[in-house]
Amino acid sequence: MDSIYHFNATLIDGTPYSFKQLQGRVALIVNTASTCNFSNQYSALERVFSDYQQRGLVVLGFPCNQFGRHEQGSNEDIKAFCTSTFNVSFPLFSKVMVNGPDAHPLFNYLKEHTRGIAQNRAIKWNFTKFLINSQGQLVNRYAPRTKPDTLRAVIESQLDEISPIQLAKV
After folding, report:
1. Which residues, including other chains, have CB under 8 Å from residue 75's CB and lie 6 or more apart?
2. Torsion angles phi and psi, residue 137, rounded to 5
3. What is the tens place of the pLDDT at every residue in 63-88?
4. What pTM value is reported for the model?
5. Helix, strand, or coil (residue 59)
6. What CATH number corresponds to the domain at position 138?
7. What residues make up the catalytic site (predicted)?
């Protein structure tokens, strides 16, 4: 697999989601958690999404309870929290595992194609970010401490690569 377009996931409301619909778009994939010290990044992710959505960016949030048990609620609880507290409008998915034998295949792919802290492939904490280009390929991985606003230049450079024909399809 040379792109993320082969994957599927389930949105937080139970709707199936095919990553094929991301063709021609830039994506920022993030494993999230509602009660983590980094949960204020939801606001920054929403700002980045809002600012660049019309240019072809989509932010994809994947709640995960693997780190510090910071995402214990149901999918309904998570959605309510994210929308009421942070006005999140970008797609949120059903809770997933990002490490271990039950890890979602998308995260296995992302880990296989990049390394994190200390060159380790495993995801170490909530709010690890993966930037995907408009061809569905991994551009880079960013640590939880990396604030979404600091990614604006690299996001813009990827958005600048989208052709007008691709953008018209978005």
Report:
1. 12, 13, 14, 63, 94, 95
2. -105, 145
3. 999 998 888 889 999 999 999 999 99
4. 0.92
5. strand
6. 3.40.30.10
7. 36
Instruction: Give the C-alpha separation, 146 to 129, whole Å.
Output: 8
Q: Between 134 and 170, whose confidence is greater?
A: 134
1 closest CA partner among 166, 136, 139, 141: 136
Tell me, what amino acid is at 90? F
pLDDT for the residue 147: 96
Q: Is 82 a catalytic residue?
A: no
The domain in which residue 34 lies consists of 4-169
Residue 26: count other Cβ atoms within 10 Å of its Cβ: 28
SS (H, E, C) the chain: CCCHHHCEEEECCCCEEEHHHHCCCEEEEEEECCCCCCCCHHHHHHHHHHHHHHHCEEEEEEECCCCCCCCCCCHHHHHHHHHHHHCCCCCEECCCCCCCCCCCHHHHHHHHCCCCHHHCCCCCCCCCEEEECCCCCEEEEECCCCCHHHHHHHHHHHHHCCCHHHHHHC
Options 36, 57, 92, 139, the catalytic residue = 36
Phi, psi of 50 (to 5 degrees): -60, -40
